[in-house]
Amino acid sequence: MEIWQKSVQITPKILKLIAEIDEFKGSWSALGQLAPDKLMSLKKVATIESVASSTRIEGVKLSDSEVRALLSGLDVNSFKSRDEEEVGGYAEVMNLIFESSSELIPNENIIKQLHQELLKFSSKDIRHRGEYKKLNNHVEAFAPDGKSLGIIFQTSPPLETPYKMESLSDWLSNSTSEPEIHILITIAIFTVSFLAIHPFQDGNGRLSRALTSLLLLRAGYDYTPYSSLERVIEENKDLYYLKLREAQTENGDSANGLISWITFFLECLVKQKDSLKRKVEKENILKSLPKLSEQILIHLKEHEKLSISDIVKLTGANRNTVKSHVFSLVEDNEIQKGGQGKGTYYYK
């Protein structure tokens, strides 16, 4: 029996998590009444976090600041490594999903199209962009330094992949058009099933997380672009791999491993919305701050750290005035101070 064909016993914990997420979904229209520039700032930061985290999960070694610098001047001719190519591709996919989610019906053709977009800059992947795998592949875990931690589980053989993807896509279409279970459970099951098949030669992990964002947006979770789910997964990577493995290696009709994965997936969604809620509440507090202090906080959200000189350049304000506002923000615990002397910097 395939994962998506199993019957799932909905636990009280699953119901509680769904209720909490949906309550936030319903209140987002009120919580998200920020100025367009503040929303844009939240989205920019979340996108950088998503791109950096999702690619690091797969072994890329670029930091948030390196990803930010790369994306600020995105140019296919400027990529110097495979890591940079993968970052550029993931950013393209996320931008496409954020801009066109209503038009991207997640069927086999769209999934293949998104895979092409994901690998559009990857010179070594030209032959299998948007094409199902021709060779066996498997799932590996990677340490923060990029070193492989070993194979986590085996995946579907190439010959079985086309009909399994057809079956999974049909199930997803039926489950979203005539739902018998909550959409968040459907998305959780689709994600683990997609990764169990591992339909493409490369890029499956990244694509699964991009597809999760697409499915959330199509289900009305409009806050998705403003808080990084990928960052939550990276911070819980060991448990992420463990729960996937439990669900994908379980024999027979038992769905205990699948229930464990669904619970973990929903817990990640709760952390995602909690992070956004804190940021929005923080932004609302900003309304009572002086305009320059507000600008400083916005710039510090977009940069890993800034010196006084950096802030002066970004704001165009007088150096002494900047110092006064920065010192007040430090005193109020709005920002933190690091380094010393000429190496002093500030960060969120």
Give an overview of the whole structure.
The protein has helices at residues 12-31, 36-57, 64-72, 82-100, 108-118, 161-177, 183-197, 204-218, 229-235, 237-248, 256-286, 291-302, 308-315, 319-331; strands at 138-142, 148-154, 336-338, 345-347. By secondary structure, the protein is mainly alpha-helical. The protein folds into two domains: 3-284, Orthogonal Bundle (Fic-like fold); 290-347, Winged helix-like DNA-binding domain superfamily/Winged helix DNA-binding domain (Arc Repressor Mutant, subunit A, Orthogonal Bundle). A two-stranded antiparallel sheet has the order 1-2. Helix 7 packs antiparallel against helix 8 (204-218). It is globular, with a radius of gyration of 22 Å. It starts with 11 loop residues before the first helix and ends with a strand. ATP binds at residues 202-209. This is Fido domain-containing protein. The active site is at residue 198. Keywords: ATP-binding, Nucleotide-binding. InterPro entries: Fido, Fido-like_dom_sf, Fido_containing, WH-like_DNA-bd_sf, WH_DNA-bd_sf.
Architecture per CATH nomenclature, i.e. the level-2 architecture of the largest domain: Orthogonal Bundle
Q: Which sequence of strands runs across the widest sheet?
A: 1-2
Q: Which sheet architecture does the biggest sheet show?
A: 2 strands, antiparallel
Number of helices: 14
Structural class computed from helices and strand pairing: mainly alpha
How many domains make up the 3D coordinates? 2
Distance between the termini: 49 Å
Under CATH, the homologous superfamily of the largest domain reads Fido-like domain
The radius of gyration is 22 Å
Helical residues, percent: 55-70%
